[in-house]
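Entry type: protein chain
Record version: 2
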Amino acid sequence: MKKIFISADIEGVCGIADWKETEIADAQGAYFREQMTREVRAACEAACEAGVEEIFVKDAHGPGRSINPMMLPRNVRIMRASTRGPFGMMAGIDGSFGGAAFIGYHSGAGTNGNPLAHTMDTNNVYVMINGELASEFLINAYTAALFGVPVLFLSGDRLLCERAERLAPGIRTVAVSEGLGNASISIHPAVAVERIKKTVAEAFGSVAAEPARAESARAGNGRSLILPGEFKIEIRFRQHHLAYRGSFYPGAAQAGPCEVAFASSSWLDALTFLFYVL
């Protein structure tokens, strides 16, 4: 495999437990930006050792300025800040990538796997896609599938990892924490880095040994997701006026005082709806 895509968030890095720890302007955030960078670096180093020649990293948390590029290998290209487009945390992906990895991801809104559980922002109670509570991982895994890019690795909280393994059988995961009420129980940050490096090496090394992605997909190894034929989306907002506003998006409808619904057979259309309404 010559080229991989890495999307990195911060609410699922080892040890994080409070919103202030995610903020660039807050002193508490400095440590967790460093830990996020360590975890991304571990994934990059493992990919290099597995024979990957080019690595594209999307700094995907908030303003997109959390990772220290100086700590990454020299064959990494990194996208910082936001394109302000619908691909969001997956900006820069296309069909040329042989695989995708997700670092520092977290459980979605409406779940209890992480004290910082949310989906895209904190204005919604949940985002439902085809009857399933949607995390940012699910949304971004579908975006990878749109381009035929296999989803190979995920690190984050335990509940998210368990759900990812059901969505994408064959994916390798590393659970660095688990939520308990408003708290987070984490492994040691150095152990998290070690496990991420080891598991990413296994994930990309196993794919590198396969003859071709197309043959692999036909063999049914579960890494290349198959997009559903239709996407039925419901968003429940915390404030009713946000649902009213969202109902004016073309094809959307208000499904209740705080709910807005949308359906499409196109993931790109569904993704664009999420981008404009959330």
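Comment: Confidence is low (pLDDT under 50) at residues 213-222.
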